[in-house]
Automatic annotation (TrEMBL):
It comes from Nocardia jinanensis. Fe cation 1 binds at E79, E110, H113, E194. Homodimer. Fe cation 2 binds at E110, E164, E194, H197. One of its GO terms (molecular function) is stearoyl-[ACP] desaturase activity. PANTHER family: ACYL- ACYL-CARRIER-PROTEIN DESATURASE-RELATED, STEAROYL-[ACYL-CARRIER-PROTEIN] 9-DESATURASE 7, CHLOROPLASTIC. One of its GO terms (biological process) is fatty acid biosynthetic process. This is Acyl-[acyl-carrier protein] desaturase. Pfam families: FA_desaturase_2 (PF03405).
Length: 312
């Protein structure tokens, strides 16, 4: 990070500090205390092989569909790597004041998610526990590399606002498609948390747009047009994501309809008129990106509805 970027970050953080404090108070007034152990069907559990001499895991023991397992593994590994996110964000935001208080609150709430997901998956024998633990070790050993590290705190905030929205959608769809009411209840609880987290970060983005619309629009363009979310750094992410794409947990259509378009509309990114040359260029690029993704989705859907005959 350059000295100029650090100076700009300090200015942004100073301007946003009261917004962070206000939104932290708002968040604490809305968030609900809940306990992971109350969501887990402990009576279904049994010992695994190893020191306790239980039964080894076998694929047939899982009552979850393959796509639900894949989606929950991705979600759990993302939550497991919170120490890396915590370090990355605090390095940008500082270790004192409202910023630090929020990051600690956020990470504590997200940690509940990893607890309930792992306990559910282990108790119901939904996944191979040895493979899951090895994936956790590999993911945490690799850490988390912020794609916008060095680009300033603003892009980190924007990335998080979109990541939380994406997580809300994935959690909710995973639960509804799991064919397990207990899983559905867990994922709905997680989605409710992620929604509040998304609103917190999105409110900061709105404030940044009012403080400096030009710079904020350029930053948003950088984030939106390459957004994939931190889960992409999970081991075997491509293979896992293919499973829940096929099942409709998270597809390109869902990405544009449930994440990109609502985000762009809420922030009125394509309607702003208070921009200079760089901001207007970024605004135009966002609009073209949205149109391009929409067109690609329509083409793909058309091909699925009207498949071309195969020739030898």
């Amino acid at each position: 990070m350059t000295g100029t970027t650090e100076k700009h970050d300090l200015g942004i953080m100073t301007y946003l500090a009261p917004v962070v404090a206000d939104n932290l108070d708002r968040h604490l007034s809305l968030t609900k205390e809940w306990f992971p152990h109350q969501f887990v069907p402990w009576s279904e559990g049994s010992n695994f092989d190893g020191p306790l001499g239980g039964d080894p895991w076998e694929p047939g023991q899982s009552r979850l569909s393959e796509h639900a397992r894949a989606s929950m593994i991705v979600g759990l590994l993302g939550e497991d790597n919170l120490p890396s996110y915590f370090f990355t964000i605090l390095s940008a935001h500082g270790n004192d004041g409202a910023w630090a208080e929020w990051v600690r609150q956020w990470c504590a709430e997200e940690a509940r998610h990893s607890v309930v997901l792992r306990d559910y998956l282990h108790t119901t024998r939904a996944v191979d526990p040895i493979a899951l633990e090895r994936a956790r070790m590999a993911h945490m050993a690799n850490g988390y590399v912020n794609a916008h590290e060095g680009d300033g705190v603003l892009r980190t905030i924007m990335m998080l606002s979109m990541s939380e929205l994406q997580a809300r959608v994935v959690h909710r769809n995973t639960g509804m498609l799991s064919n397990d009411p207990i899983c559905d209840r867990i994922m709905a609880r997680l989605a409710a948390d992620e929604n509040l987290h998304m609103i917190f970060y999105r409110n900061l983005v709105e404030a940044a747009l009012e403080i400096d619309p030009e710079d904020a629009m350029v930053a948003l363009c950088d984030v939106i047009t390459v957004f994939g979310g931190p889960a992409q750094q999970i081991p075997d992410f491509t293979a896992l994501s293919d499973q829940f794409k096929k099942a409709g947990v998270y597809t390109s259509r869902i990405h544009i309809d449930s994440v990109i378009n609502p985000y762009v509309r809420h922030l009125r990114l394509l309607d702003r008129t208070d921009l200079g040359p760089a901001g207007r260029k970024a605004q135009d690029r966002i609009g073209r990106y949205v149109n391009r993704i929409e067109l690609a989705c329509r083409r793909f859907e058309s091909m699925r509805q009207d498949p071309q005959p195969q020739t030898n």
